[in-house]
Amino acid sequence: VTALCIALDTIHLRDGRTCDICIHDADLVTFRCHQICQGSCNEGFIRVAVSAFLTQLNPTLEEVADVKTAVSEAVTNCIVHAYEGKKEKILVSCHIEGHALYLEIKDHGCGIPDIKKAMEPLFTTKPDEERSGMGFAFMEAFMDDVRVESEPGHGTTVFMRKEIGWSRPLH
């Protein structure tokens, strides 16, 4: 998708946190949340914003729930693992191609030294914090495609795709 950024708004959330929303065109929007709190206050905002963007494809409730869960897991991974609870930036981009939603969730945190190992169900680097190690497994279960790129010391990007049923009429 080629697009030119035509709008940039900053939404002020509770406790002084902000979230920039950049609407490139009808099919591409990005969210950049600042000062992510450890209690994942902005994680909920991102889930809702992505869900609202998704509605133009007329998804079922199950499809919306799938996307919200995958987004939640990816953003939570950034908060817990990439930034270890520090308040840093997470970039969430989403766009639509045909009947598919594409998501990109990027951090500039510590990176993942072994992506294959990190994506194994039940693997966690934080067992003492009651982490289940199921984040990537949930993303893979709820999305049609999940790909991870990471460089230790430079951050991680999670790419996800979800095909949305398009034969249902709008009512």
Describe the structure.
By secondary structure, the protein is α+β, with helices and mostly antiparallel strands. The chain contains four helices and seven strands. The protein has helices at residues 41-54, 61-82, 115-118, 135-142; strands at residues 7-12, 18-25, 28-33, 90-97, 100-107, 145-151, 155-163. The chain has a seven-stranded antiparallel beta sheet with strand order 1-2-3-4-5-7-6, with helices on one face. Helix 1 packs antiparallel against helix 2 (61-82) and helix 2 packs antiparallel against helix 4. The chain is globular.
Which descriptors would you attach to this protein?
171 residues; alpha+beta; 4 helices; 7 strands
Helix fraction by DSSP (H/I, runs of at least 4): 25-40%
Quaternary structure: single chain
Overall geometric form: globular
Which structural category fits the helices and strands?
alpha+beta
What's the tally of helices?
Answer: 4
Our Rg estimate from Cα atoms comes to 16 Å
Unreliable stretches (pLDDT < 50, length at least 5) are: 1-15, 35-39
- In what range is the share of β-strand residues? 25-35%
Query: In order across it, which strands form the biggest sheet?
Result: 1-2-3-4-5-7-6
Mean pLDDT: 75
Largest sheet, in brief, is:
7 strands, antiparallel
- Number of separate strands: 7
Could you state the order of secondary-structure elements as H and E? EEEHHEEHHEE
How far apart, in Å, are the first and last alpha carbons? 29 Å
